[in-house]
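re: the backbone from monday

yeah here it is again, tokenized this time
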């Protein structure tokens, strides 16, 4: 089978590998869509030689000899011994964090918090191949109303955007500001608008603001072109945003996210990026009575629940997926994504 490796130094390498076979508790997924995520760019694609095969964050190790992409969706092609809840032909997305299955975090569904987790696309083979080996417990059924590309997007980017709003307890009639309008931020803006919120998108890149405006943001602001805090306050009667989703991962974005929140507001941080950010905790958090929340992706049961939810409510993130490539064009896909292409990019199979 064909597979794409991301050895670092801005390379994508298409190689031939053996098709995996399913062991006990496992399935082989015939991949239909494999997403490109910003985390891959920062942590793998651009990784210089000295950081390869290194632990890059808590329990997350990069092995650049494994197949890339942690946004898998496809059809179950083979079922291993002891798998009772999946059958050949089932449409599935795979939650990209695979915990030990036994510790307290795993038993709560929070595989991402497991001390012994593996991550598809980082330290075990990911989705950018004709077939992928997955633990059956990591699979979520994709309802018929949801496409494979959407299913793959929910496996990380769109799922992170959706979960950020749940984590922030988005309420009716609230004003939501989204800082950073990449794929995760635009997904958060879309879901917030669908939930009835008034949505403000903040990003220095004009095309990203225009794209967010087409996909849910009612107001967009350029943080480099004036006082963005004043602009957000003006939208919400001088108060600022009730809920802020920080999806930029930049120090400036993080600081801005705290500033545009109203007194007693909530700020959900999902964006990775700058390693350290200097904040005035007194003025920016304490005096504003803020609740600041870290949200790292989602739990595996949440992936299934959100797939059922978006299918039931007729929501679609398909308009956010602007670029689809065949696996033979994977090098182009990564290069364009690295260069800052708009919207979500996917490698797809017919
Ligand atoms: Zn565990
Ligand atoms: Zn991701």
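seq for it, each position gets an aa:
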């Amino acid at each position: 089978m064909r597979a794409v490796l991301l050895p670092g130094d801005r390379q994508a390498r298409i190689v031939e590998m053996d098709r995996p076979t399913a062991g006990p508790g496992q399935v082989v997924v015939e991949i239909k869509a494999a997403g490109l995520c910003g985390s891959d760019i920062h942590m793998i694609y651009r990784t210089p030689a000295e950081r390869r095969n290194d632990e890059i964050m808590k329990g997350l190790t990069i092995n650049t000899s494994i197949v890339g992409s942690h946004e898998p969706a496809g059809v179950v092609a083979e079922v291993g011994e002891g798998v009772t809840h999946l059958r050949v032909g089932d449409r599935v997305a795979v939650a990209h964090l695979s915990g030990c299955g036994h510790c307290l975090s795993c038993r709560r569904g929070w595989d991402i918090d497991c001390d012994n987790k593996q991550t598809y696309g980082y330290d075990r083979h990911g989705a950018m191949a004709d077939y992928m080996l997955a633990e059956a417990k990591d699979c979520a059924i994709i309802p018929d109303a949801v496409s494979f590309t959407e299913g793959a997007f929910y496996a990380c980017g769109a799922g992170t955007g959706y979960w950020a709003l749940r984590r922030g307890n988005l309420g009716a009639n609230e004003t939501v500001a989204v800082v950073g309008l990449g794929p995760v931020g635009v997904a958060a803006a879309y879901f917030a608008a669908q939930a009835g919120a008034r949505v403000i998108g903040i990003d220095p890149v004009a095309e990203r603001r225009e794209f967010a405006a087409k996909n849910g943001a009612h107001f967009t602001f350029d943080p480099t072109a004036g006082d963005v805090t004043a602009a957000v306050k003006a939208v919400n009667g001088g108060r600022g945003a009730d809920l802020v989703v920080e999806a930029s991962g930049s120090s400036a974005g993080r600081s801005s996210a705290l500033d545009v929140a109203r007194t007693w507001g909530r700020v959900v941080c999902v964006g990775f990026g700058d390693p350290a950010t200097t904040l005035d905790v007194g003025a920016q958090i304490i005096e504003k009575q803020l609740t600041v929340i870290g949200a790292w992706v989602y739990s595996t049961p949440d992936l299934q629940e959100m797939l059922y939810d978006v299918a039931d409510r007729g929501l679609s993130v398909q308009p956010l997926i602007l670029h689809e490539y065949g696996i033979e064009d994977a090098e182009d896909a990564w290069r364009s994504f690295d260069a800052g292409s708009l919207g979500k990019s996917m490698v797809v199979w017919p």
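Residues 99-100, 102-103, 105-106, 114, 116 surround zinc ion (ligand 1) (CB under 6 Å). The mean pLDDT is 95.
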